Amino acid sequence: MKTQTYASIAELRPYLIRAGMKARLLNGERATLAVIDIEPNGVAEEHHHENEQLGLIVAGVLTLRIGGQARDLHPGDTYAIPGNVPHDAKAGPSGATVVDVFIPVRADWEKLPRGEPSAPDWPSS
Which of 7, 57, 81, 106 is deepest in the core (most CB within 10 A)? Predict the structure, then answer.
């Protein structure tokens, strides 16, 4: 994977990770930084992955369930998901944008379809 030194998230081709969810990635040698836009009421069904996941809500509301425990998260709220722990999420009626860090790199996302560079939901102009 190529490490990019500088980029605006608007320049990054989004990965279409699920219906209603786009992730713009910056991959380092050992970690992935993802800015993920989730459409209003968008859902990530329960899933798990080997990657540890650390996150920050930057816009909207996200109901996140980690290992069976659910919480409504708002801008400024954080979360930590250990590797291989089941979790799911649902955005609120205005959608949500989250910033996630995955360790190790989310190599599995390299197989996903990509969109063209476009303006992200956050930051709004």
Answer: 106
